[in-house]
Each structure stands twice: as C-alpha cells, then as structure tokens.
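Narrative of activities, Objective 1.

The group set out to show that a structural description can be obtained from nothing but a protein's sequence at a throughput compatible with the screening campaign. Below is one input-output pair from the validation batch, recorded exactly as produced.
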Amino acid sequence: MDLGMQFGQYRIERRLGGEGALYLARDTERNLEVVLRVLGRGFSDPERMQRIVQRTKAALALKHRNVATIYEIGEASGAWFVATEYVQGEPLHARTDGYPLSAADIGGMAIQVADALIHAHGRGIVHGDITPSNIMVTPGGQVKLLNFGLGRELADDMFDWPDWVDGVRLQFVRYISPEQLYPREEDSRSDLFSLGIVLYEAATGRPPQDPRAELLQFITARVDFKQPEAVTRVNAKVPAELGHIIHRCLEKDLERRYQSACDLAVDLKNIMRPGAYSEL
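Output recorded for this entry:
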C-alpha cells in the first residue's frame, strides 16, 4: 500500500519491518497510531478466515499490561486486516542476538510473559506462536506479547511457499511443542513449552536443537524431543533454580510440564526475590 493512502478509517504512514504486510497507520477516528496488519493471499479460504475472525474477536477481550491490545479485525478495500496497539521497543531476538541475557533480565521477562498467559489462558485463549519475534520489550523493560488470536494461522501467510513443508514454517517449528505437530485441540501447556525454548535461548545464547538441520529431520526431532543439554552445563553462570524452571517448561510429557502459567509464574517470582541468586 502507498504511504498516505486511506484504508478504511486508517491512514497509512509507513511500512514496518518484520513479517508480512505490516504498517504503521493513523486511526483517524481514535486519533491514535496503530499497527495495521493486512492479511494476504493465504486468507482467501472462507473456513480459515472464519477461524481467524473468531479467534481474534475472542482476543479483543484481552486487556492486560503485558498484552498488545487488539483494537479491531475488519475488512476494507477488499482485504481483511487486524489493527493492534503500536508498541515502541524491540523484539526479544534483537536483544539476545545469540548472546545470553542476565538472570535478572530473563526472570523479569519470563514473569511478564507468564502473567500475560495467565490472563489469556484464564479466558480460554491459547497464543499458539510464542517466539522471540512476538515478545516486544519497551525501552523501560515492559514486555508486550504480540499477535494473540492469530498465532499459528498467521504463520501460514508470512513466508513464501518454498520455506514450508505441509504448511509449517521453519521459524514456527523452531518454537513449536511436540504435541502441536499433531492435529489436535490447542493446549495452553503448549505455550509454556514454546516459552521454555525462548528462555533456553535467552539463558544459553543458542537453541536446544540445531535449527540448521533439514526441515523434515528437524520436525522429526521435535516429535521425538528429549531434554536438551542442561542449561547450567552450557552456561555455568545460570542459577540452578532458573535452569530447573526452563527444563520443566521443556518436558515433552504434558503431565510433567508446568500445568499452568500461574504455577510457572509462582516459581519464577520465588527465585526473583531479593538475594535469591547472583547475576549471570
């Protein structure tokens, strides 16, 4: 879309970096800057679009300090769009960039994501695409979880088809839980596994599995997922308690994994109390 053009009640101001047709726009009715995501060719299927609309409308009810607000899902100029809060900051992967974060930064970020998931899961909403690119960190350190309601469906539309095997994109597979590879109802505990991958990377500077492997081999490895090398062995400065929390998130067996974001948040807050551990 051209800069300055009117798209429904939104005036396009500039294109944003990142995945898909993403724009900074001015909501002329609310006099507010928003992020406008225009849904592309992958959303032409009516049944799929109905799922997107239902999930996103449910996510409109999420009002939490750690969730980027969704203002609207609608249709204009022959295309569907989602308008969300414009969050100034940088995605988590820009902060890590292959290097470990401090224990304090990891714990603080994880607690905020867990709090966002408590709010969402309590309303029956599973994110489905917890990745560093969907975790935005403001200059003040506040975490905002992006793309509720879109999750895995949005992933289908982000990349060219050669990057896909059976509709699964590599970046998504990198953070997917083993059970998400099977056609089954979404489980909130899957979000906790994906968060465990994010935390493992934040603590060690590397993923628990080698993403350079052929995609089909990588998918098979995820189905057969076993506990990766201990966080504390990769980075001896990681507090043992934090390592234990991360590995519990990464349990393949759903019954051995954290059963709720609330349980995870309690453990994180316990180790984050003053004097509980030293910095990395």
